[in-house]
Amino acid sequence: MDAPPDVIVVGDVMVDVAVSAGALKRGGDVHGRVRIRPGGAGANAAAWAADAGAQTRLHGRVGDDLPGGLIRRALEERGLDAALAVAAGEPTGAMLVVLEAGERSMVAGRGANAGLSPEDLPGRLRAGAVLVSGYLLFHPGSEPAARAALDRADAGLVAIDAASWPLLREYGPERFAEATGRATMLLANRHEALALAGRDPEDPGAADPETLLGALSARYPIVVLKLGPAGAAASWDGRALTSTAPAVAEVDPTGAGDAFDGALLAGLVRGEQPEEALRRACEAGARAAASAANWPGA
Fold it and tell me: At what angle do helices 274-289 and 256-269 cross, to 10 degrees?
C-alpha cells in the first residue's frame, strides 16, 4: 500500500487572469498589464504546502480544455499528486482579478469546479492533514463533495477554510457549523470570522481578534485568524497564540491566505510546533502578497 501523503487538499482549481491598470474606461481601451496564471484556492494551498516540503495531493475538477491540461502539468512539475477529475465538455474554472487605482475586484466563473462530486473522491482521505476549501460548500453542485471530504478525512488535522465572507453569510453561519462539524481546525480572515460569529463583516469595530477567537473556539479546537499585514492570532486547544508578519511591499494579495494555509499545515505535519508553523505561515502569506504570482517561485 502506498504511503499516505503529508497533506491532502480538496478545493478549486482555476486559471487567474490578472489585470492591472491605473483606471479602466468603460467601453474603451487602456494600456495595462495582463497576466495569466494558475490559481484556485485549492491549487494555491497545495502548491505552497509542497513548497514547504510536504508530500501533497490535490483533489479537484478541471475541464478537458487547454487550461485544464496546463494546470495539471504545472502541478505535477512541482511534485504534487494532481488527482484531478476531468469534466468532458466543461471549461476549467477561471477568475478575473482587476487591480484598478488601488482597488481589487474579482469575477469568478467556477466552471468544472462546480461539479466536483463525492464520486470524484476516494472513500478515505488518509493523510497527516486534510484541508477542504469552503468555496466547495458554497455552491450546490459541489457542496456534497465538500461534506464527503470532511466525512472521509482520516487525518490528525482536518481543516476547513472559510473562504469568502459574502458567500459564507449567504450560506449561513449555523449551516456552515453543521456542515463542518468534523473539522478540528478553522482557518478564517477577520471578515469571515465576523460572519461566522454573527457580527457585521463590514463593521471594522465589530469585534477584536480575542473576542472572535473566544466565540469560535467553542466549535473548533483550533481557530486561526489570518490578519494580513498584522500577522495571525489563534486559539490552539485553549492556548492563545499570535504571530507577526514580515513587512513587505504588497503587489497583489490574491492567494496570500491560501499560501498561509498550505505552509501552516505543511509545517505542522512535518513536526513544527504551532508557534513556529504559525510564523512560517505568516511568512508565506507575506511572500505571496509581495508577488504577482499565486504560487511560490512562479
Answer: 150
For the chain, counts of helices (H) and of strands (E): 10, 13
pLDDT tens-digit profile of 185-224?
999 999 999 999 988 888 867 788 999 999 999 999 999 9
CA distance 254 to 256: 6
**Burial code of 173-182, b = ≥16 C-beta within 10 A, e = fewer?**
beebbebbee
- Burial class, 20, CB count within 10 angstroms (exposed 0-12 / middle 13-18 / buried 19+): middle
3-class state of residue 137 by DSSP: helix
SS3 percent helix, strand, coil of the chain, rounded to 5, is 35, 30, 35
Q: What is the pLDDT of residues 112-123, one digit of tens each?
A: 999 999 999 999
Which helix (H) or strand (E) segment holds residue 188: the answer is strand 185-189
